[in-house]
Amino acid sequence: MDDLEFRRRLLADPFDNSQEMAEARNASITNRKLSDELQQLDSKLEQAMKVDVPEDLADRILFHQSGQPSSKSWKPRSLIAMAASVAFVFGIFVGQYNQGITVSNPQVEIAQIAMDHVRHEAPFIEGIDESVTLSQVNAKLTPFGPSFSNMPGHVYYVNHCGFGEKVALHMVMDSPQGKVTVFVVPEQSPDMTQFNDQTMQGVVMPVQNASLIVVGDKGQDVSPIAKSLRDELNWEI
């Protein structure tokens, strides 16, 4: 089981005690730490959902609804669950709104997906160094058509990932200004696009019938590494 599959299964069920999950969990300190943190979080969420319902809540709801015809009968727990869901969705919306993403052209969606993906994956790949070789990168890149003739920096991690409704190449590598995350997405971009938010900075670059995306920390000039990667790509004729 590779690291990505382990993290996906762990997110789905932090208490999965199958033999293969136990072996993957004990394979590294990083895996054990992530497992412990997710189990603690799951326990806290379970405790947070244990809400005491006031004994007179049903009477108060019926009182306010008296004289108002309704085709549905709502139970107190259903109302609480609905309120919690609305609050949760509203919190996500506010969080996304406060990110303050700005882009220089209408290619907002692909840039937002890239930054959301980097933000979500950061805790899972932090500290990982698989010392990926050029042949390993190209093996992962095979389904997309191109291959790299050379890598302009040390590659810490490479795998496939879900990118919106598509599957993309996800790679973390070194650059003169620090680590960057690289995506190769099978979706053509019309032109080169710079984007940023409060913590990240990146570029979307068209390459044949795909998009090369490089994301770094705020203030990093990622264009040179993106151009280097583009120049090293060879496409099948």
Question: What this model shows, in words?
Answer:
Strands 1-6-7-8-5-4-3 form a seven-stranded antiparallel β-sheet, with helices on both faces. The protein contains eight helices and nine strands. The longest helix has 22 residues, at 76-97. Mean pLDDT is 76; it is low at 70-74 and 77-106. It has helices at residues 3-12, 19-25, 29-48, 57-65, 76-97, 108-125, 134-141, 223-232, and strands at residues 102-103, 147-148, 155-163, 166-173, 180-185, 193-196, 200-207, 210-217, 233-234. It starts with a helix and ends with a strand. The chain folds into three domains: 3-48, no CATH class; 57-97, no CATH class; 105-234, 3-Layer(aba) Sandwich (Protein Transport Mog1p, Chain A), CATH 3.40.1000. With 237 residues, the protein is an alpha+beta fold. A hairpin with a 2-residue loop joins strand 7 (200-207) and strand 8.
Quick take:
The protein has 237 residues and is α+β, with helices and mostly antiparallel strands. It is 44% helix and 21% strand.
List keywords for this structure.
seven-stranded antiparallel beta sheet, two-stranded antiparallel sheet, 9 strands, 3 domains, alpha+beta, 237 residues, 8 helices
Look at the structure and give the CATH class of the largest domain. Alpha Beta
Main sheet: strand order: 1-6-7-8-5-4-3
Helical coverage, percent range:
40-55%
Radius of gyration: 23 Å
Span from first to last CA?
35 Å
Number of domains: 3
CATH architecture of the largest domain: 3-Layer(aba) Sandwich
Strand residue percentage:
15-25%
Order of helices and strands: HHHHHEHHEEEEEEEHE
User: With helices defined by DSSP (H or I, 4 residues minimum), what is the helix count?
Assistant: 8
Secondary-structure content class? alpha+beta
What about the largest sheet?
7 strands, antiparallel
Weakly predicted, low-confidence segments: 70-74, 77-106
The number of strands is 9
**Shape, per Cα inertia axes:** globular
Instruction: Give the rounded overall mean pLDDT.
Output: 76
